């Protein structure tokens, strides 16, 4: 008798702990998915209930057989004997995922499903816990008066009572009454609380995973899908504490991002100002010189400011000294592209010596003098000076005749002048044989001695394509491919025999 009372006391203490946990009813957000569709529901659960009890509850409320249910809580595949609390279910709003297998995959037949449904409806407890039931007499009406009362006697005590019931039914009913009077515990009806939630939940449904997110959340908490643009946060909505904390964290993150971005901008501006004070910009990364194909470590090459092409110093110095133009073009060339960028004056000055820089300046002045129509060079021997006069020195030396008439008269007089006749015959022979040509702009005879197919008229300074016998560029000058020979346009040569006219 003492042993029975000691056992009874222990079970009563355990019963109290269990029932205290049962009063903590939580709303579990369940994302239900199968192979073709998904939805989101809310289920009332107790943290102490097992996964097996949760499966049975879903079977009773929604008709999902336990065999087809696969639960995932806290990134763990749930087992039947573990409680929901062990997977982290402690408060309202906790999320669980239920994946439904096909009946064929779960080896579930329609007959078995029907039998299990009938058995569950007949023998299921009022709540979703799989707990042993106290034997109830039809005469005392102990449990018939309230379906919300739950019997959670331990299995050992239940077995003892069952054993004693075979000897004395009256003694069993007396024991049951004594136990209920001793612990005086009864759970209020929770039938309505355990029914599927039909109230509308504030928030927006994710179009991808159907998860119900808080109204102010910009993206789905599960799959990070953006909130629908058509959704508007309700006017009177009051965020809860976790949501306010998330909003504050987002504001703090945005503030830190803006500070970091502003700091980066200031650093970039300071770096650009420092680089602008340098005559030459070094290469930040290792590259190959496209002229000599030498490896250039970081800082050993020169990055051109205008086009950002990189070459070694020696190659750029050679390009400057061999250039016939006052503007030194970028030497970058390939099969599909020819760079039209030019070197800046301070880059040229930093690459060559002082004497070479003076010669480059003088070459530019000489070129400007030759291209200026009103230029006048000083007649003093070895003097490099020249000026520009607005007085026209062009006057007719053939009064009473225009240029055409004068040239015709000169051709007539050349018949009796053997020297003029020989010169004219030589020039005509060169033109007819293809060794010379008429300038397409001014009409003088020009000749290519050797080298590539590019040449320039010494009078009008137009660029000429030798192989096509026409101008290299269009009417807008260098780079205009609307006219001229159109070499390398659409990766096509201007002539099958073209030898680099550009």
Automatic annotation (TrEMBL):
Record-linked Gene3D superfamilies: 1.20.120.1750, Phosphatidylinositol 3-kinase Catalytic Subunit, Chain A, domain 1 (3.10.20.90), Zinc/RING finger domain, C3HC4 (zinc finger) (3.30.40.10), Zn-finger domain of Sec23/24 (2.30.30.380)
Any GO molecular function: zinc ion binding
SMART domains xref list: ZnF_RBZ
Pathways involved: Protein modification; protein ubiquitination
EC number: 2.3.2.31
Cellular component GO terms held in the UniProt record: LUBAC complex
Keyword GTP-binding: no
Pfam families in UniProt: Zn_ribbon_RanBP
PROSITE patterns recorded: TRIAD, ZF_RANBP2_1, ZF_RANBP2_2, ZF_RING_1, ZF_RING_2
UniProt xrefs under SUPFAM superfamilies: Ran binding protein zinc finger-like, RING/U-box, Ubiquitin-like
Limits of the RanBP2-type domain: 200-229
Signal sequence, renumbered to the chain: 1-27
A biological process term (GO) from this entry: proteasome-mediated ubiquitin-dependent protein catabolic process
Reactions catalysed, as given in the entry: [E2 ubiquitin-conjugating enzyme]-S-ubiquitinyl-L-cysteine + [acceptor protein]-L-lysine = [E2 ubiquitin-conjugating enzyme]-L-cysteine + [acceptor protein]-N(6)-ubiquitinyl-L-lysine
Keywords per UniProt: Metal-binding, Repeat, Signal, Transferase, Ubl conjugation pathway, Zinc, Zinc-finger
Domain RING-type: from-to ranges: 285-498, 289-331
Presence of the UniProt keyword Coiled coil in the record: no
InterPro entries: HOIL1_RBR_mRING-HC-C3HC3D (IPR047559), LUBAC_E3_Ligases (IPR051628), Rcat_RBR_HOIL1 (IPR047557), TRIAD_supradom (IPR044066), Ubiquitin-like_domsf (IPR029071), Znf_RanBP2 (IPR001876), Znf_RanBP2_sf (IPR036443), Znf_RING (IPR001841)
Family per record: Belongs to the RBR family.
PANTHER family cross-referenced by the UniProt entry: RANBP-TYPE AND C3HC4-TYPE ZINC FINGER-CONTAINING PROTEIN 1, UBIQUITIN CONJUGATING ENZYME 7 INTERACTING PROTEIN-RELATED
Protein name in the entry: RanBP-type and C3HC4-type zinc finger-containing protein 1
Organism: Oryzias sinensis (Chinese medaka)
């Amino acid at each position: 008798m003492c042993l029975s009372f000691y056992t009874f006391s222990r079970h009563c203490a355990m019963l109290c702990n269990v029932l205290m946990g049962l009063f903590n009813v939580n709303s579990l957000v369940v994302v239900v998915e199968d192979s073709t569709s998904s939805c989101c529901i809310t289920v009332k659960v107790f943290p102490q209930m097992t996964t097996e009890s949760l499966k049975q509850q879903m079977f009773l409320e929604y008709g999902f057989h336990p065999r087809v249910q696969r639960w995932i809580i806290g990134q763990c595949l749930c087992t039947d004997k573990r409680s929901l609390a062990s997977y982290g279910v402690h408060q309202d709003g906790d999320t669980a995922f239920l994946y439904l297998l096909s009946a064929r995959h779960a080896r579930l037949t329609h007959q078995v499903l029907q039998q299990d449904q009938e058995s569950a409806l007949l023998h299921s407890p009022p709540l979703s816990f799989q707990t042993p039931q106290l034997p109830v007499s039809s005469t005392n009406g102990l449990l018939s008066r309230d379906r919300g009362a739950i019997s959670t006697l331990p299995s050992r005590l239940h077995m003892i009572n069952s054993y004693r019931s075979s000897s004395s039914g009256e003694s069993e009913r007396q024991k049951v009454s004594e136990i209920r009077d001793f612990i005086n515990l009864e759970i209020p009806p929770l039938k309505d609380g355990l029914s599927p939630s039909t109230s509308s939940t504030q928030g927006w449904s994710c179009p991808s995973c159907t998860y119900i997110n808080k109204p102010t959340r910009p993206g789905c908490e599960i799959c990070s899908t953006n909130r629908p643009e058509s959704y508007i946060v309700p006017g009177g909505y009051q965020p809860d504490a976790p949501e306010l904390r998330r909003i504050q964290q987002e504001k703090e993150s945005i503030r830190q991002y803006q500070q970091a971005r502003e700091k980066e901008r200031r650093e970039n501006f300071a770096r650009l100002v420092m680089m602008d004070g340098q005559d030459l910009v070094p290469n930040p990364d290792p590259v190959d010189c496209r002229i000599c194909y030498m490896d250039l470590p970081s800082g050993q090459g020169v990055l051109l400011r205008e086009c950002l092409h990189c070459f070694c110093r020696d190659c750029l110095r050679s390009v400057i000294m061999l250039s016939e133009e006052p503007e030194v073009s970028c030497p970058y060339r390939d099969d599909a592209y020819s760079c039209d960028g030019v070197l800046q004056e301070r880059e040229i000055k930093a690459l060559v010596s002082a004497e070479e820089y003076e010669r480059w300046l003088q070459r530019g002045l000489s070129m400007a003098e030759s291209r200026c129509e009103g230029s006048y060079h000083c007649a003093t021997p070895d003097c490099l000076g020249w000026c520009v006069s607005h007085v026209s020195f062009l006057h007719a030396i053939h009064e009473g005749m225009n240029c055409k008439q004068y040239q015709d008269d000169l051709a007539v007089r050349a018949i009796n002048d053997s020297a003029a006749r020989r010169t004219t015959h030589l020039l005509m022979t060169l033109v007819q044989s293809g060794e010379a040509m008429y300038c397409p702009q001014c009409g003088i005879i020009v000749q290519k001695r050797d080298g590539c197919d590019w040449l320039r008229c010494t009078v009008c300074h137009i660029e000429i394509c030798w192989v096509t016998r026409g101008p290299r560029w269009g009417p807008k000058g260098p780079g205009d491919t609307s006219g001229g020979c159109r070499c390398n346009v659409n990766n096509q040569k201007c002539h099958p025999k073209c030898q680099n006219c550009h």
